[in-house]
Amino acid sequence: MPGRKQFDVNAVLDQAMRVFWQRGYADASLDALGSATGLGRGSLYGAFGNKDALFRKCLDHYSSIYGTQYERALAAYPGDPVRAVEAFFDVILTRIADPSVPTGCLIAQSAAQSPTLNEENGTRIRGLLDVQRRRVREALAGASADAQVLDELATFVVAVNQSLAVLSRARVPDAQLRSVASLACTTVADTLARATSKGLTRD
Predict the structure, then answer these.
(1) Per residue in 87-107, pLDDT tens?
(2) Phi first, then psi: what are they for 4, rounded to 5°?
């Protein structure tokens, strides 16, 4: 419309996402969000609603970028769940090492601040963690192991992912993060091998 300032919604979401990612929800002030996006409060509210609504849109934006990468990695090795988990961690470690984005993970950062979030945003965070767990669980589905074992491994892999994000925020060196991820992959491989061995013994 004439007289209305035009802007790239995705570019604005990307900048706002980085503010939430770096500062956390509680410390992402409207002034900081406005400075990063180049929009005043009125424009932010008019385009996205209040801070809570903008935060949810940023979570979805983050998920659309990185969730898609995780999904591709986990689906790239059908029939080889250990290799799929390795690929998953490789994507995570590549993101952590990327100097162009904040350290850590927006979801991990937000989960740690759950007490400051309203119910809807807290539910959104839990939902995104559940989606991640389901993706990992699907990658493990072809393994010869009981469903309970696979469920537990999926939860374990997601927990390690969140731990890597927290450690990276504390500036733990990349070599140590990769060691953690490698040990996690070994744990997945060993657990699946034991489960398969037990299954063969019962047969």
Answers:
(1) 999 999 999 999 999 999 999
(2) -95, 130
